[in-house]
Design brief:
Two copies of one chain form a homodimer. By secondary structure, chain A is α/β, with parallel strands linked by helices. Helix content of chain A is 34%, strand content 27%. Chain A is built from eleven helices and 14 strands. Chains A and B meet through helix 1, helix 3, helix 4, strand 13 and helix 10 of A and helix 1, helix 3, helix 4, strand 13 and helix 10 of B.
Amino acid sequence: MAIKIGILGYGNLGRGVECAVRQNPDMELKAVFTRRDSGSVKILTESARVCPVEEAPQWKDQIDVMILCGGSATDLPEQSPEYAKLFNIVDSFDTHAKIPEHFAQVDASAKASGKVAVISVGWDPGMFSLNRMYANAILPEGKDYTFWGKGVSQGHSDAIRRIKGVKDARQYTIPVEAALEAVRSGSEPELTTRQKHTRECFVVLEDGADAAGIEEEIKTMPNYFSDYDTTVHFISQEELDRDHKGIPHGGFVIRTGKTGWEKENRHLIEYRLQLDSNPEFTSSVIVAYARAAFRLASEGQSGCKTVFDIAPAYLSSRTAEELRASML
Amino acid sequence: MAIKIGILGYGNLGRGVECAVRQNPDMELKAVFTRRDSGSVKILTESARVCPVEEAPQWKDQIDVMILCGGSATDLPEQSPEYAKLFNIVDSFDTHAKIPEHFAQVDASAKASGKVAVISVGWDPGMFSLNRMYANAILPEGKDYTFWGKGVSQGHSDAIRRIKGVKDARQYTIPVEAALEAVRSGSEPELTTRQKHTRECFVVLEDGADAAGIEEEIKTMPNYFSDYDTTVHFISQEELDRDHKGIPHGGFVIRTGKTGWEKENRHLIEYRLQLDSNPEFTSSVIVAYARAAFRLASEGQSGCKTVFDIAPAYLSSRTAEELRASML
């Protein structure tokens, strides 16, 4: 019988989860829950319902895993502990500094209800975290590097859009190839923020806006741009819509380390993602962990888990025997 | 208290395990067991004993995890089921086709004794397997590729050394850059054996040997070389000893796949290893899984496990809280 999935929140991530569920024949989307007028929300899956979020509790026994597709700033800190009282859940909480606090709140809630909650699932946090952890366990003496991009940073794009005179904008984070090569050499370089990434901005101006002033304002913006080498291109709305409508992302997790009695041998472990669609890939990871959440709950487990706590085999639709025979 | 480690078999892998244990302060090497005259085996760890393999059973209560460093052809099929009767064990059984059979035998033995046995640990099988599995679970619609090298193939080097007139030889397996690029493009190419890897051989001849004949014999050797583009270099023993004494290896596990309602978005997941020392890296993976074996056994688990069955956090010396705070 298929694993019955619910989606809470139908933005880019929710739509991504819907698409990912369709690619996994052992899963079935039952319902999408929205805070918007549910009549106005059109989904792709004909067999699934769209319901107002208030009705979610009534679906308690008809949904195996509820996937929370809200944002980390305000939605998930409230929703994850709340919905873990009723459902097995998966979220993609990505405010790294607040993960311990989020974990504690969700864990208390899920332990009390006997449900499984998997938090901070996606690629960073998520697959990148896993790769950092495995590489550190294997090579205890070494150095970690994470590079992001080439990809769209929503936060940086928003920051540009808030500047007076800017109509629209898209910002790409780009890893510096020379820094990547220095890391891969095993020399364990110390790299500054500026040495690791550059920022490229495509900006559509309002009529009569001051291009030079806006370029200066972007390049000197504290936290967002002032520590980076930033390039600004002014383009038309048509060009932005045509050439920059995707949400690509990706990056590299690299650890170099030494082994041997005299630490005479060097090793490189590199994990790389190159993603056409950040939300769809994130969703694909989430859906694999929804399978794991369902199985862990079926075994009687409860409480909050992260990618570190879940044995890989739980993610796969194949049996342990099939995995050993085909992938080991 | 440190996890007490035993090593069975003191070749390249056994020495690698000894070095890796030294890099993990929560572990302690207690003894090395050898089939050779134990008085003639010199190890690096002053505090550890060297014992004849017959004495291993007497160490039953003094060793938490016995690491089996024998070969997959004849040693491990006998040793792993046998030693799992007495110890928690880790092995690096790497005959992919025989893993299901090996698993069944070790599982029966470890379940009967209440011990934990982790088999087929290293990088392939091992970390490469994990990456194949994770990537398949995340991107159910896609295609897998594994490339090996640049690295020394012991089996191919041995095959050359068996040719009459060859004094010594070293063979490198090299992935074809154009094939890697074709795979990374997401075009999901079908690649022949010849298109994926080339083979480079460094050969020392006996005095008066027929170079042209030997080159021809290498290049046309069935199974080993005839399906590849092979280059043969004749060099002196001094050159071989000076330039080719290392045992580097590595490779790439790549999966490309599609997501989206119309499968309109492509993604690339790539895991890469570049290793100065194949046996030392393999040993480093094994030692991390020895920690996991100890912990699983401490929780009362038993039976045979593979890398698919073990939650990542078990590999790390850090607590779950530390991992969440520092690596997620």
